[in-house]
Specification:
Length: 219
């Protein structure tokens, strides 16, 4: 995840070459995981454990702010670390609701970000993904202030469409009430079973849209 200082503006930005640290997770890396990020057991053999590498990675100046794409996931893994966070995924939803998708690599090419291939590949690795996130963040800083982006990032975002199910990519206003109710009910059933439910942004969107329509839903 890229780090910047609260008093910086887009005109003062200079991106250093991205840095990343490998760690030994303490268990074997599955072929499925290696197929995403191309990291193998041999590459992490003898590396420090995750907690040690995180201390190094998070050792930044006191006014530093973290930024990540889908930052809720990163924050869930490592905690807030007493820092403010910017979620470029949520900001992208606010700024570019007509984007074909809000995944980092889709936005990279849809927005035609000026990315150096030497730093931007391979995707799904910490260094290249941080570099692309920083490039995306610089584009966003031309539209919103740091404070505005932090505010957006600290709450669920209303989605223009869902990226799953029978109504995939359909505008929220075109989806029937029953589907939103099903999302809320299915989420409750999953939580009762001790399973992971829908993304908080999905729940927020279903809840907010039903309220906007004045539809009773019991939640």
């Amino acid at each position: 995840m890229p780090v910047y200082h609260a008093d910086e503006t887009p005109h003062h930005w200079e991106l250093d070459p991205p840095k990343s640290l490998l760690c030994d997770p303490g268990r074997s890396i599955t072929p499925e995981s290696s197929g995403v990020h191309h990291i193998t057991d041999a590459m992490v053999a003898g590396m420090p454990p995750p907690d040690e590498q995180l201390r190094v990675a998070c050792d930044i100046p006191g006014d530093g702010i973290f930024a990540a794409h889908n930052a809720d996931y990163d924050r869930g893994l490592i905690g807030d670390r007493d820092r403010s966070w910017i979620d470029t995924y949520k900001v992208a939803v606010k700024l570019a609701p007509m984007a074909p998708f809000f995944k980092l690599q889709v936005l990279r090419y849809w927005l035609k970000l000026d990315a150096d291939p030497a730093f931007g590949y391979p995707a799904h690795r910490a260094g290249p993904d941080s570099y692309i996130t920083a490039k995306l963040l610089m584009r966003m800083l031309a539209k919103l202030s740091v404070g505005e982006m932090i505010d957006i990032s600290n709450q669920p975002v209303f989605l223009p469409w869902f990226g799953f199910g029978k109504h995939k990519k359909k505008s929220i206003v075109e989806i029937d009430d029953g589907y939103f109710k099903w999302i809320l009910e299915e989420n409750e059933r999953a939580r009762f079973r001790g399973e992971e439910g829908f993304d908080t942004n999905v729940i927020h969107t279903a809840f907010t849209e039903l309220n906007r329509r004045g539809v009773s839903h019991g939640y």
